[in-house]
Structure formats: C-alpha cells, structure tokens
C-alpha cells in the first residue's frame, strides 16, 4: 500500500486521539482532517476544535457534526424495531454507534479527497472491526490506519513521553491510568478494563456514573406512556417528540429510577471474552415498551419469525456488519413486520425496573370477544379445537405406533 | 369412537374437576380413576382423596403422587438449560407442567387398563392441546375426553345446578365467579381471565398473591451464590440441594424480594391473543443465574447457536410438543452445549431485580491474559486483527465496487 | 353459522365439481356462482361454461379467467426468487397455485355479494387448507363449504348415483375410478393416490404424461441461455418474453429433454405422509438457472441468509400461508436480496438434467483478479489470511486449553 | 513466536510438498516429519515414502496411514446424515477431508514431540483455514507453518529453480503449469484455477477425469438398492459392506453412469468467489438415497428442523469448523433424528441421474390406511380438518379484520 497523503481521523479531542493526530503527522507525514461528532456523549465539542487548531489542523479541515438525530432515527430506532439484544442481554449501545461514525468518516474522506481514515480503537476490540467494515462497505478504496495496531507506544509511559515531546497538553488527571475505559453516546455508557477485568470480582459502585444506584432511586413509582408509530417511539405522555428528544427524555427517566445497568461477560468477534458494565437507561425502557406494543399489534406468525432471526441480526450489528446485504435484508423483513406496530404502552418505572402495565392501540389484534371466559356469542367454536388437536397429534400417534412396533420386533 | 369404559381423570379435588368426575360417571357411565399430583401448587392433596371417595371412587382407583422432584429435574431444568422464554418474556411455567401430567395420565391409564383420559381444560386454551398431544405421543390408542368442549354446562348457573343435583358440595366462596383464573406449580403462578381480560387496564394489586409487591420488598439487597453443574443448579450458597429444594428456596428468595412478576399479552397456539399475569420468583433468578454462568463457560459458537434455536424450542414447549422428535432433537443439541456449564454465580436480589454481579468457574473460557488492556506477554498479536478485518471486509469491498460500477453504467 | 345464500364455487367443469355444484343447489338451496381459471393446466375452458349453463347457472354467474400471467408473475416468480423447495426436493407446483385461486374466489365473492365459497378438495389433503387459509386472510367474513368433508357421497357408486339422479352427464371413461389423481397447472403436474399409494412400488411409466421418458429424450444436448433481472427470468436466448411465456417455453424444453420428474414421499400439513409423482419441467430448469445467476451476483452474506430461511418459507407456502404476515416479511427479505440478481446463465439440457455450464453478468461479484492462481497485482495479501485464521482460531484454542485443564483436574 | 525445532508436514509426495519439505529444512533448519494419508485419492503411497527418504527424512519420521475407513465412517457419513450441501449444491468433498488430516497432523505432532505442523495450502483458499482451525482445536499449542503465505517462491520459475538447487526431481510433465488444480479423495475430485477461472467460459471436457461423460454413459438404466441403519448406508443390493467399501462401490456406479458433476461458483470463507468443477459420483447417489429413506422414516417435525439448520451445518464444515462446539452440538441434534432412519431405497441410475423410485422400511411412518383415497375404516375423520383449518385461520381472520378496520379509519 502506498503512503496516504490525507487522512480523516475520528477525533474526540481527548489525549489518545490527540496523540494519534500528532503521530499521523509525524509518522505518515500526511495532512490530517479531524472529524468530531456529537452522539450525545455529553461532552462539549468546542474544546476539540480548539485542540485541533492548536495541533496545527487547518480550520477547513476540522469537521464537527451534531449527529444525535441521525443516530437515533437511522440507527437506534431501526435496531429497536428488532428487539435486538446480543447474547440475551446486551442492548448494543456501542456497536450501533460505530457504523454511523464510519459513514461520516467515509463521507468526509470523499468530500475532502482524503485517501485514508484513522481511528483510535485498539487491536483487541470490536470497534476497530466495526469502523473498518463500515468504511470498506461505503468507500472500498480508502485505506484505514489503526495506530494502536501499528505503533510502539504500548505503555502509559511511552504515550506520555510522546505527548510531552510533541507539546500535547496532558491534564493532571490523565497522567495516571484511568481505573477503567469508558465509551458513551445517547444510547448508553460502557465501562470496561482494569478494575473490571476479573469477572469474579464485583464492579465497584463508582463505575456507574450515569444511572442512579437502585438503592438511591425514588421510593415512589412513576408511570409514563410511550406512543409508537410503525415500530418507532413518537411521543411520551402524549407529547410528540423527535427521535433524539425521546431517547434523551427516556434516559433522564431511566437514570432517575436506576434502570438499565448490566454487568456482562460477552464474546467479542475477535475471539475472546470480555467483561463490561453497560448503562442503558432509556434503551431499557424503550425495549420494554416496544415489546409491550408488539404484544397486541403483532401477529404470532410475524412475531415468532422476528424472534427467530433476531439473534443473527444482533450478531451482525455486534460484529460490525451494519452496512452489509444480510443486515439490510433482515431489516427489510423487520420493517415489514412493523407496519401496524402503532399504539401506546403504559409503563411503571421503579427501583431499576421498567414494566409494561397496560397497552392499547387502534391496530390491536387482541380480541376480547374470542378470549373471554364468558359467553362469546359464537366467536369461537370450542369443538374446533378437537379437530385442531387431533390433526396436530396425528404424526405423534404415528410415531408412537411405529416406535412400539419396532420395539416389539427389536 | 366407541364409548370408553374406564377413564383416568386429572383431578384437582376442586369444584370443576369434581363436576367433571360426576359428569363422566353419568354421561359416559364409565369407571373413573382419579389422578392428583403435587407439583408444588401449595395445596393439600388429602382433601382430594376424601372428595374422590365421597364421589364414589374406589380406593384403588385414587392415584395421588408427589411429582415435585420429577417436575424440576426432568422438565424445568432441561428447559432452563435453553434459557427458554416464549415471545421474549414468558418463562413457560404452565406449559412445562402439562406434559408431566400427560405422562402420568398415560402411565396410569396403561397400568389400570383404562381406555380414555379426561381433563378439565377449556376449548379456548393451550392446556387442552398440551395434555392431548402428550397423551397421543405416549399412548396413541387412548381416547381423550375434554368435557368443556362437549357438555352444555356453559354457564356458572348450570354448573352449580349440576353440582347440587349430584350432591357435590360447593364451598361458599365458590358460589360466585372467581375474579380471575389461577394455575400454580413449583415454577409459577399464572392468573388470567375476567378482571384481566382488557389489556389496556392495569392488573389490580390483589392479582399477585405469591410475590411481595416491590414496594414492600426489603430495603436491603441480599446476595446469594448459585452453583451449576452441566447447566443445572446444584447448590445455593455452597449447600448442595435437590432440584425441587433448590427451586423452592429460590422461590422464597424471589417472592421476598418482589422478583418475577410479568404482565403479558401472548399468542395462544389456538390462534388468539390472551393476557395473563405470571409470577415466577425462583425461575426468574434461575434464568439470570444460568445466563451468568454461561457467560464465562460457554463458547460463542455454541452460545449463538443455542440463542438462535431457542425461540423454536420455547414455541414447541408452549404449543405442547414436549414429547416430539423435534423437541428431543433440540434438547440433544442443548444438552451437548452444557457439558462445561459448571461454576458459581453471585447475584444481587433487590426490589424486583435479580442481577449477576460476579461469576467464576474451573471451566471458565474467560482469559484475562488475552483481554487485558495491560501488556499481555504475547498472548495476542494485535496485528492479526488487520488481516482478520481485511478478509472479513473483502466481500463488502467487492459489493461496493460492483454497486458503484453498476450505478455508473445505470 | 347461518346458511349461505350465494356461493362461489371453484369449478373445473369436471365430474366432481359438477356434482358439487348440483349438491350445493339441492343441499344448501343457494345460488351458485362458478369460477373457472386458466392456470395453464392445458384444458379448454369453454366446455366448463357450457356445462355450468346446462346445470342451471346464470350467464352472469359464470366467471372464467385466464390467470396464467398473474400466476407466474405474482406467485411463481416470487417463490423462485427464494429457490424454494419443500423437504429438499419438491418445487411446490400445486401449493403455489392455491392462494391465487383463493384470491379470485374471495374477489368474486366480494363483487357478487356471495356469503360463501366452496371447493372440491378432500378432507385429507393440503389443498383444503390452502384454499381456506387464503380466503380467511382476504375475506375473513366468508364461509367456506367443503362438500367432501360434509356429504355422504363417500363411494364411487354413490357419486355416480347422485350424478344420474341429477342429470349430470358422466363420460364413459369417468365411470370407473381413475388409476390416480391429477392436478396440473403451468408450473407442474402432480399425480397421487391409488396405484401410487404404496411407496415401495415403483410408479408405472404411464403416470408421467407431461415429460418425455428420459430414455426417449434426444441423444443430443441442447444449450439455452436464460436472462434474469432482479431475480426473475426475462428472456430466453436473448428474446424478451412475458413471465407466462417464459415458463411455457421452459416447459417445452424441459418436457422434450425428460427434465423434472420427482417421485416423492412428503409430509402433509394435516399430519400424514403421502406419495406423489411430480412433473415440473420448466420449473426445474428455472431453479437451476436462478441458482446459477445467484452464484455470481449474490454475496455470501445475503446468500447464506436466504438459504437458512428458505425451508421455513417453503413450509409456509406448502402449508397454505401465502397470505400471512410471516410469508410477506420473508418475501421482503428475499426480494431485497434480488436487487442485483441480473445476468445470463447458459444451461445444458440433456437426458433429464439441466446443468449450468456458464454465467455472466454486469452485476457480477466474481473477481478473477482476487481468485487467480497467477500473480494478482496486490489485489489480495496472502499474509492477511494468517491473522484471519488466528483470530478465528482463538476461541477454539481457548476451548482446547480449558478442556485439557479440566480433564487434568478431573 | 520462537522457531520450531520439529515440524510435521502434510506430505503428498508431489512436487509442491517436496519443495516445502526442503524449504522447511533450509529456512527453518528444523527436523521434518512427513505424514501421508490414503484418503482414496487413487495414488500409490509408496513413492511418497521413497521420495521422503531421498529428501533426507529419517525412516521413523515417515508416517503413512490408510485413513479411508475412518474418513467415511467418522467424517463423510455423519455429514451425510444431515443432507449437507453448501450453497444449495456443493457436497463438501474437499471440506470434509481437511479436519481428518488436521487430526492426524496434530496426533503425530503429539506423538513425535513436534512443535509445529506445516501444509501446502495457499493463502487464498479455504484449505489453509480448515487445516489450521482443526489443529488449533486439537493441539492449541502447536505452531502452523504455511509456506505459501511466507516464502518468495511466487512464480513457477522460482519454484523450479528452488527444486533444481535442492536436487528435487521434477517430472517432465510438471515443468509447465498444470491447466488446472486438482484435489481428490474417496468422496470427490475437485478442479479449479487457470482454464476454469472465467465462470462465463464452459469447462473443457478434459476437466472431468473421474466420471464418464453423460453422453458416453450406458444407454440402459441400472437399478440398485441401498440399505441404511440409523442414517448410514450399510449395504448395497443386500450385501453388507464397510463404509469405505460402500462409498467405493457407489463411486464406481456413479462414475459409470455419468452421475455427480457440478460446475459451481462458490463463496470462499476468505471473502472471494471461486469457480470449481466437482465430481462426486458416489456421494450424489448417497445423498439421493438418504433423502429417500428419510422420506418414509423421518417425521416432519424432526425433518423440517434438520432442513432448517442444515445450511449452517454445511457452512461450518465448509469454513473449517468441524472441531467446534457448535458443529458438535448440531451433530448431536442430527444424530438424534437418525435413530429410526433405517430401511432400503431403490434407485435408478441413468445418464447422469440417480433417482429414488421406491423405498421401504420396518421403521416406516407412512400409513397407507390414513392417506388412502379409498375407505379408511375410520383411521381419519375428515371433519377434524374443519376445526384444524378454522383455528389455523383464526389469526389470519383477526389480522384481516384489523387491517380493514384501520384502512377504514385511515
């Protein structure tokens, strides 16, 4: 591969990506374009601009974008239509943000004529895969530079030395190792590494920064109503809201009530297990609410089909295949099932739990007339069940008869 | 079909099955054998014997069995190895008990030379299917009588008249309709019908009888350790216990902490939706614990495979196909994956939640050496990730190139 | 259910449905509307009109439709996009025609204000299910009358008596039983029953009427080219043709070369096994050609996904669930994968076989540059494979190490 | 990684692996152990021993094993129980042989105290993956050397120079490039590369060396009977035979009748498409026969389950994951379904086709009594079908009613 001349860097403004920025300039001698996104991680972006300028990036090479609405509308919501959870429990909060970043890296590279992109993910994790598969799918000709897989700055000491040599300011509290590593966006905050590395040891309380400890959550339950249209949340307590606003609101509610903490050991795509603590306050409520509205609006045929393909869909997102033909084909299936997933769910929020307590919809398939224990005015003829069962039992009877016949002969 | 001469009745000793008992005697003129099982429903069985005698059943025709250990060991535990949930949330507490009852109905019929069995399930529900498929699979020649599909006692008034005419004692509190219908066993208590029939209306508090209301649960969390061997729980806090004892103990803990309540609208096999409230205190803890131990002992290949077939497995159990070749084949797959699912999980129980906080095992696949953010002494070469990603990306690059080529030609 | 006053009958003009027609008039005393469709079964439809008139049907109540193009375009082609085969081998030729008939029965009932439909399928087969599920999904309020499940004309003698009593002419060759039962349409001809009922006995040669015996097929192979657009065949040997014309042409070619005979024992939805002989000349060629074009235009991700859901899709069609949310959701998935399935396949037809021998496409994903044994000018770095394999192997190594550790302790 | 001191080489005795042998000695300076296996590829093995000796391998370091029975019994037969085909058509003839070789490489390494294994597969193909995943799963500590990914002998000229310099004899006909690359074993012969690289160009006739051209196959059909026990073929025409003997016999029959040629473009695990011609004479017959016996002995529940997991199972084998927990779990499922797959199939072999024409078994589930068009003496009550259909239709009716209601409101 030839040396790239212009590189778009996914730049947070933090110490690590600032070092990468400088390292790209010195090691590759290339022009660096920075891309910094607001995904709802709760950090100011202006400091990133200042820092980039200070590190010699030209004004026109600094790209700062507020992607919160795009993130929720085009990534989070489609994923929640599937009730996607990875390995039974993980709501994919980091996984789903990566393809969005890859998309804008690729776009900015295209616009600026860059021939490479760079990111700050390590060689052991899933994020490198997600970034690079996304970029490959969108701009197949771009090179990808992953400094953590290349450089020799493999210890904290070496990193700080490099920073010092290159006049990169290091905040006092960044001099030592952080006790764990954090990723945050509008959907979740994840913590992993260091004090969390032994899965037999409980996570310290201070790991969860976003969600109130259950013990400290209010002693009174709160009830909310979430309204859906075609599988997406569109209103809370009757107030129509934009996608990002809805998730923000649910995050506040979830965080207040201690909802959405997960201590988890997962299987990374690169082959090893890792342990993380995930905080997904709004997402946890949203999943419960979406399941609640599907319960009355989704038919069993479509519902069971969705359930059966969900693990594969979640795995694709986890592994970084958002921009793949198979994820898109599964999305077409999922979206098709959501045409009538509209209505309202009432939830009780209390001490770490979000629980559906009622749901109603103009699109409901629930038929009180059919299910009632009372007289049903001929809606359902119980005698039909006899034939239904007898034909479902027929093959079982044939098997039992065969088995008895064979056993006797045996 | 010819008239049966001897019928084994699944007999609870309650009003409904007592009426059925008498109805079989009068309508079919046949000898009735009663079968009453202790599945942990928390009721005395001796009264059932007295009532059967009083209704003219001969001593030797009364079968009363304590099936709690068999229930947990041969039905509940195999199912929990699969992390089975129906439609995302329901732990199948009623579904899994029915094949066990069917098995003993068939066995007693075989032993006593009966030519039919009878049950008290209605023609609208799943239980009729589960009983009858089970019986068909085990004794294909047996007739099944389902009085609720046949008789004309379709109102409360008619039922009470029949009881009166036949000297069946009716307890005062049974004269009116119960506000909802209940099924209970060691795994769960379900409530459905009547006040629960409108899914838009919250369930009244008095529906949950088994589990403490979350608001009233202790304000202090409790920590327990559950130990597994080959996928089955074998000890709590280091004390080895029998299957039924373990589930009983977890039920006490769950009930105390308000754990395991589900308000749910589900799709019945017979084609309609119904709403129920399920209380599964011990099962909810057990599921969380089993997932916790699988996290460190189960490989991703086996784990993702299990996840992908779980919905079908759960559906088979829900629909009554426990004794079917396909459930048995899936069980073989699931059991094969559990060979190393041994170890201990520490859980926090608090205010409606059971959460894994730590797990350890001699069979652990977790490798701190590989995952660490620190120096890993060569366990993992980060450069391998570059090749891994490039080959995974290859087809995505080829697709993107093709799509661009086609678009250009357009 | 109340007696219907107007019934739309799926009427072939043959003896059986003529008897049904008369039986509906006499038994139900209702007005009968006839619906006769040309699905390519190779029979004149005018005689059906004459016979209906003769049996007292009013001119305006006789509906005769040529559905060949609709059949292929909206039913056969969508199904072939999935490479659907039931139980590994059956191309679903009967199954796919039934929902089309159900659709028009429902439409005509709607137009004519009929309150019921009737069909001539027996109570043992799949076709009754397919007709009735289709009608239920499209006009849920319609009654369905299935005379074979109701009447007492259960022997040949009784049927002929009824015909005689009602002045229904019986052709000489219809006086005795046919040696087997036949269904035909543009996609296939099926034969079952009577001489075919013992699966241990070979089917007599005279069963296959549509396809030349392989032994008599030409001794020289024939080569054809089939062109696809978005998964559907659009041209043969460069000549653009309508859907029904393409299938007709392929049928001629297949029949000539002895292609598409299947002797098969299948599992009916109603619970029993049955044996049939299927002739699907054009469909067999079409399936091979479609697979051939997918080989170069479909990515492995989308392709393997399609393969994995195909059996469920085929089962849905076989069982009669064409008009169901789950079939439609699967179709959305399948259609999404076909966007680039365009190009041309060259096939060799010879002595019962249709075999792809070459394929090319502007949408091809095949990259000779990558695959070549020769120098590839840097398209692919073989060293990448080392990292790819090492990371794929990592979990296997961790398992082997764990197993050895446990075994040693054991 | 440290340099290995002793390497076990998968050695065919051919030019390429002889060059590798010498290269290992010179490049790595290590002791080389050769492993040569008879998998039914139809070559003498003694010349390999002579050549190894000549290249300086010590007598005790030469391992030559006849693995034909193990190959068929422990690899081919288990795979055929699943009716495994990759991407709809490929019978996995190369894929299934690789794990067996990996197993013996690992075993010999273990026995001889070697610290590495080496193979002659290129860096572009699947075989490197299959070898190396197998070795990793069985002896996780072994290094793997893949010279084609490492060395600089990247052209024919360089290879021949190296051979000359190292006194490796080069047969005259090996001086030029072969027109295509071949792999053979008892199950199949594959050809790929060079003249086959353009999938739009028909394969030349001379590619197929193993199977008679269909045009030259006998003009008279031949009928055979294959008997199965628990899913495995055990006899031909009533004669009990060992696994390898059965496959050998079927190969002769298939080759004679022109059966089992496939021209195929497939998706390699490493991300590219490749085109191959496969000859699988006996395997093609075996697959047809196995499907034939399953048709009457396997229940639809188990059968459809098998069909639905087959593509994943085939993909695992293709990708090299034979020794993985997920393949083993799937095998447990598959084997469970085969307990009654015993009986005999009669096949017609003629001009490229193997077709089941009859099948019988003591384990048959086929019930002529149920399926018959004639009087069935009460085996089946056609009225049951009405209830069966009505309950299956219930949800479709509810959907249609809901959709109409919503559309009206709309």
From TrEMBL, chains A, B, C, D:
Top-rank taxon, per record: Bacteria
Binding positions (L-citrulline) = 90, 95, 126, 130, 181, 190, 266, 278
Pathway(s) this gene product operates in, as recorded in its UniProt entry: Amino-acid biosynthesis; L-arginine biosynthesis; L-arginine from L-ornithine and carbamoyl phosphate: step 2/3
Which amino acids does the record list as binding ATP?
10-18, 37, 120
Q: Which reaction does it catalyse?
A: L-citrulline + L-aspartate + ATP = 2-(N(omega)-L-arginino)succinate + AMP + diphosphate + H(+)
Residue span(s) of domain Arginosuccinate synthase-like N-terminal: 6-169
Gene3D superfamilies, A to Z: Argininosuccinate synthetase, chain A, domain 2, HUPs, Single helix bin
What Pfam families does this protein's entry cite?
Arginosuc_syn_C, Arginosuc_synth
- Residue ranges occupied by any Arginosuccinate synthase C-terminal domain in the UniProt entry: 180-398
Q: What is its main location?
A: cytoplasm
Query: Is the keyword NAD in the record?
Result: no
Query: Which of the seven top EC classes does this enzyme belong to?
Result: ligase
A single GO BP term for this record reads: urea cycle
InterPro entries per the UniProt record, alphabetical? Arginosuc_syn_C, Arginosuc_syn_N, Arginosuc_synth, Arginosuc_synth_CS, Arginosuc_synth_type_1_subfam, AS_cat/multimer_dom_body, Rossmann-like_a/b/a_fold
Any one cellular-component term (Gene Ontology)? cytoplasm
**Binding of L-aspartate, residues:** 122, 126-127
- Keyword vocabulary terms for this entry: Amino-acid biosynthesis, Arginine biosynthesis, ATP-binding, Cytoplasm, Ligase, Nucleotide-binding
Recorded E.C. number(s)? Answer: 6.3.4.5
- GO MF terms held by the record: argininosuccinate synthase activity; ATP binding
Q: What is the annotated localization of this protein?
A: Cytoplasm
Self-association state and partner proteins as the record states:
Homotetramer.
Family indicated by similarity: Belongs to the argininosuccinate synthase family. Type 1 subfamily.
List the protein's name.
Argininosuccinate synthase
